[in-house]
Q: What sequence folds into this?
């Protein structure tokens, strides 16, 4: 099983479908993702104004940058 991060386009689709009051299960089927992936995305990346695609993408990118480890060339 391979894992891929949600793209900005997928986040905009989540935003649009959530705005139309669709269920997490329907959103997951449309995006061909697991319902738990959509649920985690909505929980982790919401703002004070609700889920926003651009804000969610920025938060996800910030988390990825914080987790990146840099190996100094001399040590490598």
A:
């Amino acid at each position: 099983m391979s894992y891929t991060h949600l793209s900005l386009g997928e986040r905009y689709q989540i935003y649009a479908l959530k705005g139309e009051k669709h269920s997490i299960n329907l959103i997951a089927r449309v995006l061909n993702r697991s319902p738990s992936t959509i649920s985690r995305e909505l929980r982790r990346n919401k703002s004070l104004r609700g889920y926003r695609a651009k804000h969610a993408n920025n938060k996800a990118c910030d988390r990825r940058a914080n987790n990146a480890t840099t190996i100094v060339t001399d040590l490598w």
Notes: The chain has a mean pLDDT of 88. The two ends are 30 Å apart (CA to CA).
